[in-house]
Design goal:
Largest sheet: 6 strands, mixed
Number of helices: 6
Strand content: 25-35%
Mean pLDDT: 95
CATH architecture: 4-Layer Sandwich
Helix content: 10-25%
Shape: globular
CATH superfamily: Endonuclease/exonuclease/phosphatase
CATH topology: Deoxyribonuclease I, Chain A
Strand order of the largest sheet: 3-4-2-1-13-12
Radius of gyration: 17 Å
């Protein structure tokens, strides 16, 4: 089973042809299940269009809360296998949403956290730890948590003074010094990070400066019962600038 998560940037409306470029990327990767973030103002027909381009007959659009602009950054799931037990979490609390689906005996949670503040993200994740994936569930069920968490892990190889470096290019949402509250809370809950320690780990490059700054905010985390089944986890290249985020793909072997 291959799981891919991808923030597609503002619904892939522009430039023209970007949705088709994303479809080509997905067709090369051949995932079993795709978790999409930033399906901005999509309806079921827009998601169905991408599902048809990628031969994924099963799909669901998770409605997200509106941003200040009124835009809604919906979540999408597409799959080659049937989707079951579909539900949403945290609609009254989250900036966006958390969409849960089951594929066989594996449950996937597609999550997009607040982009503005680590304190807000921490409140979101604490709510979800209580309401959607408490530690006892993480320890005992076959779960995958994927999406754009807008949070940095202390285990990734960032340089000293990262907060200062990011401030120089106008990025302040992680704090200075950098706060790791969100990822620390998930680690304490029991989630495992199969991409941790890999050489190719960055999913977004802050390029306002001459030297792009590698960061990772996109994750595929697994619960302990799934960890022995992890075959591979990798960040995929973007040959045609399909988004400002790189997709991450996880391969499980049962």
């Amino acid at each position: 089973m291959r799981i891919l998560t991808f923030n597609i940037l503002f619904g892939a409306y522009s430039p023209a042809g970007r949705l088709e470029a994303i479809a080509r990327l997905l067709n090369r990767a051949k995932p079993t299940v795709v978790l999409l973030q930033e399906c901005m103002d999509w309806n079921e027909e827009r998601l169905e269009e991408l599902a048809k381009l990628t031969a994924m007959p099963h799909f669901h659009l998770g409605r997200s809360n509106p941003r200040g602009s009124g835009k809604r950054y919906h979540l999408g799931v597409m799959s080659r296998l049937p989707l079951e037990n579909v539900k949403s979490h945290g609609q009254s609390v989250l900036a966006h949403s958390c969409l849960e689906v089951s594929v066989g005996d594996v449950t996937l949670l597609n999550l997009h956290l607040n982009a503005g503040s680590e304190d807000v993200r921490s409140r979101e994740i604490e709510h979800l730890i209580q309401a959607a994936f408490p530690p006892e569930r993480v320890q005992n069920e076959r779960l995958i948590l994927g999406g754009d968490l807008n949070a940095l892990s202390r285990h990734d190889p960032y340089p000293d003074g990262l907060g200062d470096v990011l401030e120089e290019v106008g990025v302040t949402k992680y704090g200075n010094p950098i706060s790791h509250q969100v990822m620390d809370s998930l680690e304490e809950t029991g989630w495992k990070d199969p991409l941790q320690g890999e050489d190719n780990w960055a999913t977004r490059y802050r390029s306002e400066s001459e030297t792009p700054i590698p960061t990772r905010t996109d994750y595929l985390l697994v619960s302990p019962p799934l960890e022995p089944s992890v075959e591979n986890c990798e960040v995929l290249p973007l040959p045609n600038q399909e988004s400002d985020h790189h997709p991450v793909m996880l391969e499980l072997r049962f």
